[in-house]
């Protein structure tokens, strides 16, 4: 069915992959990408699809109620895919204010805009709120997060995401807003900002720089290839039951040290050797642990498999090889992010309107 989708945060890592998926696989959907272009937003990542007839970009803040009202009215938005957020846990520890502003106030402002615009005519409309498994806290050696697991966020980031989940759910129960929530595990793949573990290790490893592993490297994450996540979100928009949440995970629990060692070995196989002749594992450096570092995340994705027939298609071995290949083939992308020149792209494209 044709849709007009407001994608918030479409210039971030997952948003870029999601916009690309929609333009490729949902040709009767119009896509409006609303992004503030914070440090994490990279408009250049969508340069090759920027003139697609179904795509438009709006630079703006989800906290801007007037802008949202105009967009909903003028574009007749019937679907929201809400990715925009401050997403990096380490930054939330050193500077939590932006996380409260965007993740809590921004989500509230967006929910209000949808409620006002869809009032009395929400049939067929969908508000998909993208959230994280981090709202459930930290697991011990066994067990999995299910949709029934009690919320127990432990970082400013996860607390802000938990708040936004509660708001989204409250708008369903109180106002009947057609809300859906997804709680996903760690994504990896193309276009991820190189502050996150996998692209950071790849970038440092390529340049022979130290590879920081927090604490003992025994923390566990459940890795999901970003394309699989994006396909799950489309499935939930199209078939999800209103008011419900769906856990999305990759069934790929790995310790951080395992992931870093694997990346070292893949770089040794696929890239030029280090000038020292040493294997890249020699660059691994155990550093001071993250404050409040959650030990283990693991998703039980049984509900989305059973109810919506969604399973991840990409194994960790396939996904990590594809990811290494992408970063090796797109070194310019990483270089423009690390030297900051990606932030000029919007100015160059839009000039005085920037
Ligand atoms: P990201 O940090 O790469 O991108 C965030 C995007 O949001 C950027 O383009 C940024 O410019 C934009 N943005 C930030 N503040 C904004 C504002 N006030 N108004 C408009 N745009 C704004 O994040 P990501 O990794 O792509 O994550 C996307 C969503 O998925 C987030 O909500 C995150 O919590 C959630 N999530 C991420 C992961 C993961 O592993 N990356 C896993 C589970 C859930
Ligand atoms: O679980 C989903 C979450 O995954 C998302 O909600 C977040 O937005 C996303 O950033 C991610 O959070 P993490 O904190 O798990 O991702 P990060 O890449 O920052 O770290 C992954 C693990 O690697 C974590 O245990 C910390 C560790 N780490 C990270 C960095 C950046 C290191 O050991 N060294 C590093 O340099």
Task: Please provide a written account of the structure.
GO terms for molecular function: dTDP-glucose 4,6-dehydratase activity. Its EC number is 4.2.1.46. InterPro entries: dTDP_Gluc_deHydtase, NAD(P)-bd_dom, NAD(P)-bd_dom_sf. By secondary structure, this protein is α/β, with parallel strands linked by helices. The chain has a domain at 4-187 and 224-251 and 297-313: NAD(P)-binding Rossmann-like Domain (Rossmann fold, 3-Layer(aba) Sandwich). It has twelve helices and 13 strands. The longest helix has 22 residues, at 97-118. The chain binds nicotinamide-adenine-dinucleotide and 2'deoxy-thymidine-5'-diphospho-alpha-D-glucose. Nicotinamide-adenine-dinucleotide binds next to helix 1, helix 4 and strand 5.
């Amino acid at each position: 069915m044709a849709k007009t989708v407001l994608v918030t945060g479409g210039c971030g890592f997952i948003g870029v992959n999601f916009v690309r998926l929609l333009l490729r696989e949902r040709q009767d959907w119009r896509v409006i990408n609303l992004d503030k272009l914070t440090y994490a937003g990279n408009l250049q990542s969508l340069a090759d699809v920027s003139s697609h007839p179904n795509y438009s970009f709006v630079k703006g803040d989800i906290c801007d109620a007037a802008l949202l009202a105009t967009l909903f009215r003028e574009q007749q938005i019937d679907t929201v895919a809400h990715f925009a957020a401050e997403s990096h846990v380490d930054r939330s520890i050193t500077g939590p204010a932006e996380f409260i502003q965007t993740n809590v106030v921004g989500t509230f402002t967006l929910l209000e805009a949808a409620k006002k615009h869809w009032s009395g005519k929400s049939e067929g409309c969908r508000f998909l709120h993208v959230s994280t498994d981090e709202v459930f806290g930290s697991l011990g050696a066994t067990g999995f997060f299910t949709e029934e697991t009690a919320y127990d966020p432990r970082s400013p980031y996860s607390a802000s995401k938990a708040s936004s989940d509660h708001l989204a759910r409250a708008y369903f129960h109180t106002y009947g807003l057609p809300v859906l929530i997804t709680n996903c595990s760690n994504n990896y793949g193309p276009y991820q900002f190189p502050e996150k573990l996998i692209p950071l290790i790849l970038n440092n490893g390529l340049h022979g720089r130290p590879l920081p592993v927090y604490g003992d490297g025994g923390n566990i994450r459940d890795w999901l290839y970003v394309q699989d996540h994006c396909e799950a979100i489309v499935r939930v928009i199209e078939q999800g039951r209103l008011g419900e949440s769906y856990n999305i995970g990759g069934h790929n629990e790995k310790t951080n040290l395992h992931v870093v060692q694997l990346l070292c070995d893949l770089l040794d196989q696929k890239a030029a050797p280090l000038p020292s002749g040493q294997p890249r594992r020699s660059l691994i450096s155990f550093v001071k642990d993250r404050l409040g570092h959650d030990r283990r995340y693991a998703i039980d994705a049984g509900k989305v498999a059973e109810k919506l027939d969604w399973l991840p298609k990409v194994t960790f071995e396939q996904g990590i090889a594809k990811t290494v290949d992408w970063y090796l083939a797109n070194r310019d992308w990483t270089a423009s992010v690390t030297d900051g020149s990606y932030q000029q792209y919007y100015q160059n494209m839009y000039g005085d309107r920037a």
